[in-house]
């Protein structure tokens, strides 16, 4: 039989063949090639199929691929090896992809020690800039109080709001006005929602949502007297904070009020989001900065940042949200490292009091102080420096219309827009914007079809609000090993169903683990020293409260029972009292008289 | 000397050159440009898994015509849509699956049940039954009967009739030569041109009833049979002998040779399991497939040899991957009764099941497949979704969505009961090993328990 099958040159099953290849890669390759040369099907197929270059055997295998020789399961080992090789290849290819980034970042350089970049004025910058870029230098003279502004995520559209109720949204590049409203009440903040087709305004009493043409769509009555708003684009959440000190998250895709947090820190005028983990940073009147996520009822981080009210908070998007800058009414500006909060990385006193501040995409920090805007650049503001001196100034621009209420960098442009009491002015800050945008994320040049498609796609990819955490990379990473060990006789991987009953109870947190120790302590007395035989005999079954202990012993079912717990607590208390009395009698412990100050003692 | 350059985007590079052109896109793969990349990918994978379950509507059609259980089905070689089925009422139907019509319907092809059918060549078909006859049919539509009545051509006469001494249980045709094999109390080889069997094959000392016989698809002179004595036997018609046989724990109900791996054979067993064997080492199965909760009645390989379909007494059809012994795809309907025959179509896209209620049901082989034209863009999206599902299958939520299946309550309860019983058995065995001498030797592997004896 075997001979007959062998003669027929039967194809062997795939599994066997793979094993052979793994064992002797060199040996089995040669006959395989020889046999494939006369395989007509293969030759005809191979003409019309081609592997990508990275997968061809001629391309060198990527280096530093981890070996999985410790894994016994061959299938799993092969799969892991293949996956890690694929990842290593993708990483190598990612380096090549950087060649495709064609646009160059802007810059401003001077020669010699004596020349300074901050001496260069806006006229000079605008003259040196190209015709397209120079259009970013603008002055909008408007009345209606100090203005605030906000760009869309692609930097194409600008929304402005004046304190007295003047609201406008427009495409600033083409100058197309979308909506202009005179709301005739106090407006405190404005933000675009997922794109320029909707925007929300924080008004006198409530927050309102308008569409692109300025038609009022929703009055968010839950958001009372809002002062600041942030929109989390990947979660579709509109977060507001108001004079009542409540932080509220509203889902703009379903319309639900997801959660409201009571900050307990009074009216709040300062809010910022970390774009990399969607954590909301609030600055409060008593100088604390708190970090909030929807799934925690208390702040994830609470930080005393300033000695007076916090005026402004901003998070650096260029370093993955690692640095936070705060400005306080006490006139200081501080840069914090969000990984450890042990003091500021750098702090300095801003002349004319701290004002609004913001980080740009490339890590330039603009601080509006007194009558001018100062811009600092990256390496110096993020390196630890003990002295409280300002880092080297990169650019400064005086604006005579105090107060300067908002500074906003335009994404993908070298433009900084400053809102002040006489309107808005935008200045050129070379090197502040990211030159290469990604059309899949935000495209300043996208057309209507692309915008619609992106809206639907991002709705489908909407992340649930309870996924917001300080570390966004926890998704898809390995779960930490469980704290409860289920080891029985040294074997760790016994499934739950096969564990002994007591182990199962222990894993599910229902086991009563106090009793053995309890019984031992009760019988063994206070000192754990071994007893003589006579002593044991003497003490046998003569303890106080025998009935309680008997009750406990009889109730023992290996399951936590509230009554048993109460009885045990009582026993413990009695034992403690006895111990104390004994210690006082022997003179080891002084008898403390109760004092009036005892009420302030912490209950232990 | 001051050097100043301000970032500006050239509109010529980012706007379409002419109206109607697609807008150029640009990419920047810096991870900082893609916040929440992992979370968003996970959401996409979750949506993909949910969409797959939403669109999982595998049932396509029920082909009616039989009055009693559909015992046997076969597909016509070199066609995608023609399938023949034979029933316990003696009816024989050739279906056009794509049109859902009957090409031929012989109402009383045999007296009693038809137990096996197979195609002899493109337009002739063999059937055997418990009336001790093998009949050869012409499946071409005949002009005289066609004008009488298109569907029911009950007056059709067989081309020839081969009569045997005992009831036949199964029939299979040789791949190239005009030979066929039948199974009764022994395996007989027939020549189409001769009215009596040309040779009898039987294992010496065997007294069993053979329930199925199949020729190997590539080594065409080798054939295998299963019998009521819980045996699986291999024969060779060149030597005219039974070469080897194994006796198993429980009897097998159905047998199928793999179309791509000539040495591997699939057995559907009475003990709720399916087994693949490599015939070069018959002492252990290469894989045990466990999910049915009653006897498996029928099985068939997909033409690619990577999947197979099985149908069971538990009223479910299951689709397995070769080498993956658990968690098959499960199909069921309210009205489908015990499944007695299953079949893969030749393009591996559809699965047919014949059941006790006399219907032949057509199912998709992949439950959420889209039928009809798929554009390149859609194909790319489907492939992307499949990759995402595979990448995130270890995620608890996604894995749960893509694994969970709705199962009829009786099947679910039976599975629960079976699990409990097996668990109790396992515990008992464990305790026995712990407290007796049995614990001194290693426990026997599950695979080693399947085959009781190997004889040659």
Automatic annotation (TrEMBL), chain A:
Main location (coarse class): nucleus
> Which regions are flagged for Basic and acidic residues bias?
500-512, 569-579, 589-604
Positions of the region Disordered? Answer: 1-68, 499-604
Cited function: Involved in nucleolar processing of pre-18S ribosomal RNA.
Gene Ontology biological process: maturation of SSU-rRNA from tricistronic rRNA transcript (SSU-rRNA, 5.8S rRNA, LSU-rRNA)
Which portions of the chain have biased composition (kind: Polar residues)? 34-49
Q: Which GO terms describe its cellular component?
A: 90S preribosome; small-subunit processome
**In which compartments does the protein localize?**
Nucleus, Nucleolus
Which UniProt keywords are present, listed alphabetically? Nucleus, Repeat, rRNA processing, WD repeat
Identify the Gene3D superfamilies for this entry.
YVTN repeat-like/Quinoprotein amine dehydrogenase
Domain BING4 C-terminal, which positions? 393-472
Indicate whether Nucleus appears among the record's keywords: yes
Locations of Basic residues compositional bias? Answer: 539-557
Organism domain of life: Eukaryota
Question: WD repeats span which residues?
Answer: 303-337
Protein name, per record:
U three protein 7
Automatic annotation (TrEMBL), chain B:
Q: Where in the cell is it found?
A: Nucleus, Nucleolus
Which residues, if any, are the signal sequence?
Answer: none
Q: Which residues form the Sof1-like protein domain?
A: 365-451
The answer on whether this UniProt entry bears the keyword Nucleus reads: yes
Any single Gene Ontology cellular-component annotation: small-subunit processome
Q: Which GO terms describe its biological process?
A: maturation of SSU-rRNA from tricistronic rRNA transcript (SSU-rRNA, 5.8S rRNA, LSU-rRNA); protein ubiquitination
What ranges cover the WD repeats? Answer: 107-147, 289-321, 332-373
Region: Disordered, residue numbers: 1-32, 422-456
Main localization is: nucleus
Q: Where is the composition biased (Basic and acidic residues)?
A: 437-456
Q: Which UniProt keywords apply?
A: Nucleus, Repeat, Ribonucleoprotein, WD repeat
Pfam family of this protein, just one?
A: WD40
Please give the family membership noted in the entry.
Belongs to the WD repeat DCAF13/WDSOF1 family.
Q: What is this protein called?
A: DDB1- and CUL4-associated factor 13
């Amino acid at each position: 039989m075997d001979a007959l099958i062998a003669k027929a040159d039967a194809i062997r099953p795939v599994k066997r063949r793979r094993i052979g290849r793994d064992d002797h890669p060199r040996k089995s390759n040669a006959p395989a090639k020889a046999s494939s040369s006369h395989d007509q099907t293969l030759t005809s197929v191979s003409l019309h199929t081609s592997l990508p270059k990275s997968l061809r055997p001629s391309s060198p295998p990527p280096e530093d691929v981890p070996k999985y020789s410790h894994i016994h399961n061959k299938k799993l080992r092969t799969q892991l090896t293949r996956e890690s090789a694929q990842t290593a290849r993708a990483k190598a290819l990612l380096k090549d992809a950087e060649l495709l980034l064609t646009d160059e970042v802007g810059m401003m350089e001077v020669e010699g020690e004596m020349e300074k970049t901050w001496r260069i004025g806006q006229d000079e910058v605008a003259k040196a800039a190209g015709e397209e870029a120079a259009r970013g230098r603008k002055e909008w003279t408007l009345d209606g109080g100090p203005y605030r502004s906000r760009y869309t995520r692609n930097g194409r559209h600008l929304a402005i709001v004046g304190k007295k109720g003047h609201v406008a949204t427009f495409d600033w590049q083409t100058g197309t006005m979308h909506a202009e409203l005179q709301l005739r009440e106090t407006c405190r903040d404005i933000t675009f929602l997922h794109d320029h087709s909707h925007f929300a305004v924080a008004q006198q009493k409530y927050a309102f949502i308008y569409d692109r043409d300025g038609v009022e769509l929703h009055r968010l009555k839950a958001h009372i007297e809002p002062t600041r708003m942030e929109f989390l684009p990947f979660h579709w959440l509109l977060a507001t904070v108001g004079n009542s000190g409540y932080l509220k998250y509203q889902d703009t895709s379903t319309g639900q009020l997801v959660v409201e947090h009571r900050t307990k820190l009074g009216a709040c005028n300062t809010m910022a989001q970390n774009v990399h983990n969607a954590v909301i940073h609030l600055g409060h009147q008593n100088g604390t900065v708190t970090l909030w996520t929807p799934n925690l009822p208390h702040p994830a981080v609470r930080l005393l940042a300033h000695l007076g009210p916090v005026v402004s908070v901003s998070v650096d998007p260029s370093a993955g949200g690692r640095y936070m800058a705060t400005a306080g009414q006490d006139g200081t500006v501080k840069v914090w490292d969000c990984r450890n909060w042990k003091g500021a990385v750098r702090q300095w006193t801003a002349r004319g009091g701290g004002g609004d501040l913001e980080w740009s995409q490339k890590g330039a920090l603009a601080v509006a102080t007194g009558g001018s805007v100062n811009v600092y650049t990256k390496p110096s503001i993020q390196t630890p420096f003990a002295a409280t001196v300002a880092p080297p100034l990169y650019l400064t621009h005086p604006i005579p219309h105090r107060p300067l209420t908002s500074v906003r960098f335009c994404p993908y442009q070298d433009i900084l827009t400053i809102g002040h009491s006489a309107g808005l002015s935008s200045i050129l800050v070379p090197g502040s914007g990211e030159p290469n945008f990604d059309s899949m994320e935000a495209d300043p040049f996208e057309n209507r079809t692309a915008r619609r498609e992106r809206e639907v796609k991002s709705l489908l990819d909407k992340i649930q609000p309870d996924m917001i955490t300080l570390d966004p990379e926890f998704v898809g990473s390995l779960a930490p090993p469980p704290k409860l060990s289920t080891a029985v006789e040294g074997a760790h991987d016994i499934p739950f169903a096969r564990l002994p009953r007591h182990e199962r109870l222990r894993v599910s947190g229902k086991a009563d683990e106090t009793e053995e120790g309890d019984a031992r302590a009760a019988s063994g007395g206070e000192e754990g020293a071994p007893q003589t035989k006579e002593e044991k005999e003497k003490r046998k079954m003569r303890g106080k409260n025998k009935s309680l202990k008997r009750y406990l012993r009889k109730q023992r079912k290996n399951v936590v029972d509230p009554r048993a717990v109460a009885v045990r607590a009582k026993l413990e208390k009695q034992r403690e009292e006895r111990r104390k009395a004994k210690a006082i009698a022997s003179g080891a412990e002084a008898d403390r008289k109760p004092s009036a100050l005892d009420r302030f003692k912490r209950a232990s | 000397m001051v050097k100043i350059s301000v970032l500006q985007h050239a509109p010529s590079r980012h706007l379409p050159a002419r109206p109607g052109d697609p807008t150029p896109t640009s990419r920047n793969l810096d991870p900082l440009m893609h916040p929440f990349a992992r979370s968003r990918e996970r959401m996409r994978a979750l949506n993909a898994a949910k969409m797959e379950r939403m669109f999982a509507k595998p049932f396509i059609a029920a082909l009616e015509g039989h009055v009693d259980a559909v015992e046997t089905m076969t597909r016509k070689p070199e066609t995608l849509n023609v399938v023949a089925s034979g029933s316990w009422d003696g009816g024989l139907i050739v279906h056009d699956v794509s049109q859902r019509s009957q090409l031929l319907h012989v109402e009383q092809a045999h007296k009693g049940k038809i137990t096996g059918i197979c195609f002899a060549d493109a337009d002739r078909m063999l059937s055997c039954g418990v009336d001790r006859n093998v009949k050869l049919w012409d499946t071409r539509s005949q002009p005289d009967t066609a004008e009488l009545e298109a569907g029911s051509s009950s007056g059709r006469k067989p081309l020839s009739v081969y009569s045997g001494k005992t009831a036949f249980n199964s029939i299979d045709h040789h791949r190239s030569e005009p030979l066929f094999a039948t199974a009764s109390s022994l395996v007989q080889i027939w020549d189409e041109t001769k009215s009596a069997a040309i040779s009898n094959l039987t294992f010496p000392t065997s007294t069993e009833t053979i329930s199925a016989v199949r020729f190997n698809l590539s080594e065409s002179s080798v054939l295998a049979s299963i019998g009521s004595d819980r045996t699986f036997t291999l024969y060779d018609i060149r030597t005219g002998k039974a070469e080897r046989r194994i006796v198993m724990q429980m009897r097998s109900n159905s047998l199928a040779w793999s179309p791509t791996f000539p040495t591997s054979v699939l057995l559907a067993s009475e003990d709720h399991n399916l087994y693949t064997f490599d015939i070069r080492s018959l002492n252990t199965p290469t894989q045990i497939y466990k999910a049915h909760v009653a006897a498996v009645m029928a099985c068939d390989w997909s033409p690619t040899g990577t999947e197979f379909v099985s149908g069971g007494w538990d009223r479910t059809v299951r689709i397995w991957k070769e080498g993956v012994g658990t968690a098959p795809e499960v199909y069921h309907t309210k009205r489908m009764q015990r499944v007695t025959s299953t079949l893969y179509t030749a393009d591996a896209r559809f699965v047919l099941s014949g059941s006790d209620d006399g219907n032949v049901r057509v199912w998709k082989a992949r439950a959420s497949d889209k039928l009809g034209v798929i554009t390149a863009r859609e194909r790319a999206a489907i492939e992307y979704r499949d990759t995402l599902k595979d990448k995130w299958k270890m995620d608890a939520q996604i894995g749960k969505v893509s694994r969970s299946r709705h199962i009829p309550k009786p099947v679910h309860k039976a599975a629960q009961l079976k699990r409990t019983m097996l668990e109790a058995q396992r515990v008992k065995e464990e305790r026995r090993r712990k407290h007796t001498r049995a614990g001194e030797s290693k426990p026997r592997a599950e695979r080693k328990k399947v085959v009781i004896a190997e004889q040659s």
